[in-house]
Amino acid sequence: MKEKPKLIDENGRRIDGRRPDELRPLRMEVGVLKNADGSAYVEYGNTKVIVAVYGPREIHPKHLTLPDRAIIRCRYHMTSFSTTERKSPAPTRREIELSKVIREALEGVIFTELYPRTSIDIFIEVLQADGGTRTAGITAASLALADAGIPMKDLVAGVAVGKIDGVLVLDINEVEDEFGEADLPVAMMPSFKEITLLQMNGVLSEDEFWEALKLAEKGVMEIYKAQKEALLNKYSRVKVEVEE
Amino acid sequence: MSITPTSGRIIPRLRKDTILSLLEKDTRLDGRRLDEYREVIVAPGVIPKAEGSALAKIGSTTAIAGVKVGVGTPFPDTPDEGVLTVNVEFVPLASPTLEPGPPDENAIEIARVIDRCLREIRAVDIGKLVIIPGEKVYIIWLDVYILDHDGNVLDASMLAGMAALLNTKLPKVEIDEKKNVKIVREETTPLPVNHKVVTVSIAKIGSKLIVDPNLDEDDIIDAKITIGISDDGRIVGLQKAGSGVLTYDDLKLAMKYAKENAAKLLKILEEKSNTKVDLDDVLKSYIEGKILKHQVV
Amino acid sequence: MPIYVQNRELVTPGTLLAENEDLRLETPTVFKHGNKVYSSTIGLVDLSDKRINVIPLEGKYIPKVGDLVIGLIEDYGLTYWIVDIKAPYKAILNVGEVLNRPFNPLKENIKNIYDIGDYVLAKVIAFDRTKDPALTTKQKGLGKITKGRIVEIIPSRVPRVIGKKASMITMLKTETKCQITVGLNGRIWIIGPSPEYEEIAILAIKKIENEAHTSGLTDRIRAFIRKELEKRELKVVEGEGKA
Prior knowledge:
B: 297 residues, Ribosomal Protein S5, domain 2, 6-stranded mixed beta sheet, 31% strand, disordered C terminus
């Protein structure tokens, strides 16, 4: 049994030096793969995910599709070397559950009625896991969908709030998740404050829950800003080169 | 059971004609010479959490390799050796024609070719991976994922895999009186690597041989030969693919191309082995079109 | 009607564009939520024509009846072909939309007309939500493409290759000495006096695709083509090259 480390020190600082309401360093790149219709790479601190989107496209067998809108196929998968202990390449029950909640977090945001009888495929690959992989995955998937030109109501941004040593903290890493009292991943459409993913593992009082949600919203708005910057960056880079 | 591939890309006739007519003039669609690789990038250490890792790009083809180290029992017939297992996966991110699922014959073939190229020459010194002879040894898992498929994934996988092994740190182990083995991740030594190995893949289209076929060229090849070459100039693996034939002259020329290009690839591996690159920066370089120049011309 | 963005501003999905109770027209790139108008894709704001629109910078080709497209034959049945036109849907080409005479599938093989791997210049004759798009090659000038090169670009960048009042495409043809036929689905057919000219045309088109959202493009592309011609010691067209 691993020994539980002290998660918050006397100055209110976390193991990696962050304050409770601080996100990890974010990095986002859009359009990183040649073959995919849309792609993005996102880092939340040491968590690294890459997403490819294909579609809308026809798939076989045709009876899987719907006559009035596109279906979404979403696969969340972790590489064998992404975790501390090597993970077998075969899909685990956790990956299957996460594929579902992530699909549901994105499906309602996409204007699927524009593309009947097609499929929009979202493939998430976690390259390094340090907590918050599903939220980083959703954030990256939104960027990849936008990169593919698929119309959506808004980008979706996700972040996990945790409770560690009695304190609510934003964007928990793996250690905080493992030894904390609660883990609350949230994803929202920032422009409309509408929640598309909400889960909890652990125990919270009702007051703590509402506070945690507010903290999540703060994180989501910061991540949204970074998402928009990453998308605009793809084009402004060319503008800068052109003007030189 | 292996079945003739039926679902794949449609090769436009016009493109095929253009490629063939360019080959007549000893040149290719992207302007390369027949014996020339695309831009090669090797970025070690991109996944710091893994014991070893590296990303390799050949043109747009992208492979990422990770090494995980564990402790386990040796194979019964080799009680004094550690275990190295190689796995390759084509994830659906890499190409529009891929579906999720267990590795197909292509992924398995690549994994086994890489494994053979490393095994007989003992590129990884598995004799030095014994903890308790006959009972406990180090297990080295080399997992390669293809993220973007633009042809010649085999060479990209081998490069990524070899660079990841060179980058690998072996965690220390502690054995107690009851022969329980505890992994101490904080203390490491480099994985004992005796040889660097690379593969050079050469395709045959009509009567011409081309090195490092891209995806468009791969669609129309008749046969392909992959030659594994070690840093001391020995041939450590051979694999012919495709249903076409190779003549003795083909093999002579292929061997010449392989030796020349192996030297260049080994040089890149050598130069890169002590650097550390951010995954974000490597991926960014694709978008910017300014691919970091690691290739020695 | 308060407008929150400028013309040609780069916007992302979920960006608030304006508040307008009168907006009746919803395109795939603009939608209403209450009485607020938002962008649904990444694109450039277009405030001309007194309405708000967003011109998308990415996305597959959405077929429109009457469009000239370049398709790739992927498969066939007894009396029809399945054609890839870089859209979310494959297109159907019936033998009745190709031949001016009756076709007997028992006596003739359809692959002798168009075979898998052939590029065809075609027109979209039908498309709606319930059916795959249908093509024709019956009109003059349409049919199998037998020589030259095909270059593919993102369909939303095609208008930039054509340019305002065909200014860009005219300049390209003159400067590169190539015949250039633009498929609205993002495939462009080039026939030049030699492979070198064709290659320059392809590079120029790829450059336009990459810089489609910038200004001063026509002059930059002309300069680029002239530099490439010089590099290969080919003849440059005299004068400004205005048609």
